[in-house]
Structure formats: C-alpha cells, structure tokens
Specification:
The complex is a heterodimer of chains A (340) and B (380). By secondary structure, chain A is mostly helical. In chain A, 77% of the residues lie in helices and 1% in strands. In chain A, a hairpin with a 2-residue loop joins strand 1 and strand 2. By secondary structure, chain B is an all-alpha fold. In chain B, helix 2 packs antiparallel against helix 16, helix 4 packs across helix 14 and helix 7 packs antiparallel against helix 8. Chain B is globular, with a radius of gyration of 21 Å. Classes of the chains: A mainly alpha (340), B mainly alpha (380).
C-alpha cells in the first residue's frame, strides 16, 4: 500500500515534471510570440528566403548587401527611437533634411580630400546636435506640436542645403568612402558600426539613468516629472541624439553614394519612423527596443530589394510596400501597440 | 462666425445643462476669441501685406486668382480637421489628393463611369483604413502612413508621368464667375459654414468630437465606435475627393505627387485655427482661416521675390512664428485644456480597451460621477 502510493507519487512527479517542461516550453514559445520585434523578424526572414530562392543572388550575398544598406537606416532609426520613446507625440521629421545638409556640409569642408577629416566630422556632429536642440526648443518653449515643429525646422534646413549645394562640388574623401563601402570578412564596416550602436543603445536602455528617464517620460509625463525626471532636459537630449544620428548617417551615406544628393534623405523621413514602429517600440512612447529597430531596418531594406528585383513599375512597387506594411500591422494588431 | 458658439468638445456639449447658461456663454465667447482669433488676424495681416506690395490683389480679379489657389488648402484642412477631431492624424492625405488628381486627369476624362467608380472605391478604401485602425486598435499615424504608399502607388499606376487632360466641367466648376463677387471666396465661405454645421450641429459631427475627446464618452454616446470611425473616414475621403477636384481644376493637369505638400499644411492649418492636436477640440471656422493664412503664405513668396531656394525655409519659419503666436495668446487656456485631457481614464475603459490599460483607475475624483449615456454632465 505504502509502496504503491510511493510508486504513484513518483509517477505523479514524473508526469508533473513532463507537464512542467511542456508548460515551460509553451511559456517560452508564448514569450517568443510576444517578442515585440517578431513581426519584423518573420517578415525579414520570409523576404530573405524569397529573394534567395528567386535565384538572383546567393543567400549570403543578399544578406550582406541588405545589412550594409540597412545599417544607415538602423542608425537613423535608433535616433528616431529615442525621440518616439519620449512619448507625448514626439517625433523627428527633420531627419532627412538634417541628413542631406550634413552630407553637403561634409563635402563642402572635405572637398574630396582627407586633409580636414576631423574638422568635417566635428562640424557635422555639432550641426546635428544643434539642429536637434533647435527642434526641442521650438517644441518646448513655443509649444508647437512636434510633428509640425520638426517639419518646419526641416524646411529651414532644406533651404540651407539648397543654397549650400550650389557651390559644393567635391566628394567626401577617401577615408569616409572606405569606411562606408568597405567590409571585413564579408561583413561590411557599416553593418558592424550599426551593430555596435545597437548593442550600445540596448545596454544604455536598460542601465543608464538617462534612458530610464526617457522611457519614464514616454510612459507618463506627469509621473516622470513627479519622480524627478528633468523632462525638458530629456526632451532636448533625445532630439539632440536624433539630430546627431541623422547627421552622422548623412556624412556616411554621402560618402557611400559618392557625394551629396538633393533627394538622398527623402525615404528616411517615414522609413525611420517605420523601423521604430515595426521594431516593436511603442509608437506612443515608453517602450524602446534597439535590436528590433535593427531587424526592422533589414526588413524594410529587403522589401525595397524585392520590389526592385520584381521589375514592377514604380506604382506597383509602392502598392506592394504599402500592402506589406499594412498586412503586417493588421496581423500584429492591438497587442503590439498597447503598453502591457 | 458666431463668437458665442461654445466649440469645446463633447464634454462641454454635455455639460451645458449642469452650469448656468449665461456663465457658459460668457466664458465661451472669451474662449472663442482666444482660440481662433490668431488664425483670422494672421490671414488678414498676410492679405494686407500682399495688398501693400501689389494693390491689385484686392481687386475682384486679384481676389479671384489669389483665393482660387487657396481652395485646395481649405479642402485639405477640412479633411485633416475631421481626422484630428476624432483623435487621429492623416499622413496619407497628400498621396490621396494626388490619387484623386491622377484619376481626374485620366479615367474621369476618358471613361467617366469607371472614373466615378474608382473615386467611390477610394472613399471605401478610406473607410477600410478607419476600420483597420478601429478593429485592430492601431495608431492612425502608422496606418495612414502605410496607406499613403498605396494611394501613391495607385496614382502612379493610373498616371505614371505628370500630364493628362482635365474634364472641362471640372475647370468650369471652380472658375465659374458671378459678376462682382470673387467666386472662390464665396465657395470658401460656404465651406466654412458647412464645416461648422457638420462638426458642431450634426449628429455625426458630435460623435466624431466625442470619439476624439474620450474613448469612453464616445462609447457611451455612440455605442458603436466602429460606425463613428467609418463615418469619420468616409467623410474625410469625400472631402479629399472634392479637394482633389479643386486641385485638378487649379493645376489643369494631373501629377501623382501634386498633393504631397498638403500633409503638413493641413495639420498646421487646423492647429493654427485652434484645433487640438490630441483630438476632441475643433474650430471649423478657425481651420478654414488657418488654411487661408497658410495658403497666403505659399502665395506671398512670389510677391516678396525671395530666392526660390529660400522659399521653403521661409514657409517653415512663418509656420513656427504663426503657431508660436497662437500658443502664446492662448497659452494659459491651453494648459488648462491639456491638463484636463491628460486626466486618466476610469476603470471601465481600462477593462474594455487594451490601449488604455496601465492607466491608474481611481486617481480621478470625477471618475465615478461619469454620466449615464446622453444624460447629466461631466464634472471637470
């Protein structure tokens, strides 16, 4: 009798353990399913396989070129992520203008040689930060909605680069060109730079006081202020980060495409927002996810690659791009956009 | 414009019964003056500057020409106004105007029946956008952005390169002249009145304001937020179709990208005119004047003879200045309004709506005293 019950309890325990393992497996599956960057990851994988099986290029080659191009978008997207994470409708639509001006500014200073590389980098970085601070100043002191303020500031910068572009004719020099187009062991320098940025930002997000302040601000302005977060200072900083990121991307992208071009930034305006949202950050702020932004950048880049490969007309290309994003949003649905 | 109209959100509409009527009206008239006066002053000031540089602007022909260019701005602002009032934002508006413009310049001219069907399909598409936003609880910012691609794509399919011919009836519709009266000005006035009646006096308008003001009050008021949102997006779609007609008549040809600049301008016009970015609050007359002011900003560049490179920067600067003045004038009032808006939702909403979860339930003293559907008043 006692042996029987002992036997029973051992069997019970074993069953229990199996059930535990099962539920743990299910739980981890569910956790993976809840991962905020999942839709972009699945989308990127599908597109990668689609392009690979299409036979136009190898899997490795597709991935290498996609990560190289996506790196620019990822860095700009990380800047945008900080702004959006700060909530309260914060968004930086001046990204393409800052980016383009930075490319022309760099080309103007470098003029095709590497003699004044340090000056160019410092000037571009300072410009990006100042542009971000101006954005923040217009938003916080003049109380203009961010979506309007950053676009208006962007327009002013656009005028500036239209003027500047008339007397810039040099390129961005050898050093920056090598950095933006070179690769190491099959992985482009740009992808490595973006990866380093993603890791640094993700660590900062979980460890630094500043990032905690940004997320707190995004979750509740009132609560963040009462907890002692310096809300105005945080707002200024996130826009400065976004401006700096856009300016650096502009400098590198300018070198990548061989000099400034007036429409080089156009796609970055909405794409930088799209990667943040598809990457699993909360569009209303408070939740940020740096790896997700990187994955979403690869996804968007592969999407453009695919539509290019399909040789469809520009119109159909736009429709496909729109439908894929809408479809993804519809599948992801409410869970992705609620703060739980 | 009636200065006495209390144009605050549904909360205010509901609360009219619980306060003394005279007090509300006095307060409201003060509020009205503060909220949309800057747009009016700004529009008149710009017109004065233009008249100072070029006196012929004020002649009947001059007004005709100036305001003909502003009509599309007014339509765009009104469409965006409907969206902002309901708490959404429409980033696809520019591409949508381009699509209507492209259809007008091609199909509507060659195969009128197919053209009309395409325009109807477009309006249905707009409603589908609203349904997707409501049913999947998605942010309108992202969904309308993605739909912008789709509209632009269809526009490029219909009309790959700028060109096409415009139906003559469409040009005549907007350039029809009544002797002695600047016809576009009359049209704008009619639009302003219609917009005011729709937003302030009609049932759908009230429901849209309720939707933007608070999800909960909308649920109590309308019962079916989906229906309200479908109405809202349908109306915006129709206004965009009309705006596309105006744009086509004015441009005289089709261009898929012709509407792109309207996105920012439409948002700015509504905000300049006193509308609240976060929804619920709307000033139709202010939005129309905001559109006039920003349309004049676009027109004034040619009078000031600024270098073409600097035009867009000048517009950006004027935009910031105008909005800053508006905020400066109504700063205090706004702070009160935003503080009220930021107040947490009661627990009932938290259970039903995942988008509102995580908001503390019991911290609003007035939360328990919310009115039964259609009754009482919300105490602020």
């Amino acid at each position: 009798m006692t042996a029987d019950s002992a036997q029973m309890s051992i069997e019970d325990a074993q069953e229990q353990r199996v059930a535990d393992a099962g539920s743990r497996f299910r739980a981890s599956l569910a956790a993976a399913g809840r991962y905020r960057g999942l839709p972009a990851l699945v989308g990127a994988l599908c597109l990668w396989l689609a392009i690979g099986f299409d036979g136009k290029g190898s899997f490795g080659g597709t991935l290498a070129s996609a990560t190289e191009v996506a790196a620019f978008l990822a860095i700009a997207g990380l800047g945008q992520m900080f702004v959006i994470a700060a909530g309260n409708g914060n968004i930086d639509l001046s990204v393409p203008y800052v980016l383009t001006f930075a490319a022309f500014l760099g080309a103007d200073i470098l003029n095709g040689s590497d003699a004044r590389l340090a000056q160019a980098i410092v000037a571009v970085a300072v410009f990006g930060i100042v542009a971000g601070l101006v954005n923040a100043a217009v938003i916080t002191t003049l109380k203009v909605p961010p979506i309007v303020a950053t676009l208006a500031v962007g327009f002013i910068i656009e005028s500036a680069y239209l003027e500047l572009s008339t007397h810039v004719n040099g390129g961005l020099g050898h050093a920056l060109t090598t950095l933006s187009t070179g690769s190491w062991a099959g992985v482009s320098y740009m992808a490595l730079i973006a990866l380093a940025c993603i890791v640094a930002v993700q660590i900062a997000l979980s460890r630094s006081w500043f990032a905690r302040g940004v997320l707190a601000l995004g979750q509740s302005h009132q609560a963040a202020r009462l907890t002692g977060v310096r809300t105005v200072r945080v707002t200024f900083t996130v826009y400065a980060i976004s401006g700096l990121a856009a300016a650096i991307v502009g400098l590198l992208l300018g070198a990548y495409i061989g000099g400034g071009s007036l429409d080089m930034g156009t796609s970055y305006q909405l794409d930088s927002v799209a990667v943040v949202v598809l990457g699993g950050c909360l569009v209303s702020g408070g939740i940020a996810n740096a790896p997700g932004v990187g994955i979403a950048s690869v996804f968007i880049t592969l999407l453009v690659t695919l539509t290019n490969l399909l040789h469809v007309s520009a119109g159909v290309e736009q429709i496909i791009e729109g439908l894929i994003i809408v479809g993804l949003l519809a599948v992801v649905g409410k869970e992705q956009f609620s703060a739980d | 414009m009636s200065p006495g109209s209390y144009q605050r959100s549904s909360d205010a509409v509901d609360s009219a019964g619980s306060h003394s009527r005279a007090g509300v009206w006095t307060q409201a008239s003060r509020f009205a003056l503060r909220r949309d006066l800057p747009a009016v002053v700004f529009a008149i000031a710009l017109l004065a500057v233009m008249a100072d540089i070029e006196p012929s602007v004020l002649s009947s022909t001059g007004l005709d020409l100036t305001f003909l260019g502003i009509v599309p701005f007014v339509f765009a602002a009104l469409a965006q106004m409907i969206m902002l009032t309901g708490g959404d934002i429409d980033l696809s508006l520019g591409s949508a105007l381009g699509l209507v413009n492209a259809i007008c310049a091609t199909e509507l001219q060659t195969h009128p029946v197919i053209g009309v069907l395409e325009l109807l399909a477009f309006v249905v598409g707009y409603m589908a956008m609203g349904a997707l936003i409501e049913l999947r609880r998605l942010p309108s910012l992202v969904v309308t952005f993605a739909f912008g691609f789709i509209w632009l794509g269809f526009a490029l399919v219909v009309l790959p390169t700028p060109g096409g011919t415009v139906p003559t009836w469409m040009t005549q519709l907007f350039t029809y002249t009544i002797p002695g009266i600047p016809e576009p000005l009359l049209l704008i006035a009619v639009l302003a009145v219609l917009a005011w009646v729709f937003m302030m006096k009609s049932r759908p308008g009230r429901q849209i304001r309720a939707l933007g003001s608070r999800r909960l009050s909308a649920r109590q008021y309308a019962r079916r937020p989906l229906n309200v949102r479908l109405t809202m997006y349908g109306c915006a779609g129709v206004v965009i179709v009309l705006g596309g007609f105006a744009l086509t008549a004015q441009a005289g040809s089709g261009d898929p990208n012709s509407g792109q600049s309207f996105v920012l301008v439409s948002v700015a016009a509504v905000v300049l005119g006193g509308g609240e970015f976060s929804g619920g609050t709307v000033w139709p007359i202010g939005a129309v004047f905001g559109a006039i002011a920003l349309g004049l900003v676009a027109a004034i560049d040619s009078y000031l003879q600024i270098s073409s490179n600097l035009v867009i920067g000048f517009e950006g600067l004027l935009l910031i200045v105008a909005l800053a003045i508006r905020r400066g004038l109504s700063g205090l009032e706004l702070r009160v309004a935003t503080a009220g808006r930021a107040s947490p939702e009661p627990a009932v909403g938290a259970r039903r709506d995942p988008a509102e979860r995580g908001i503390p339930a019991a911290s609003e003293p007035g939360a328990q005293s919310l009115p039964a559907p259609r009754g009482g008043g919300v105490s602020r």
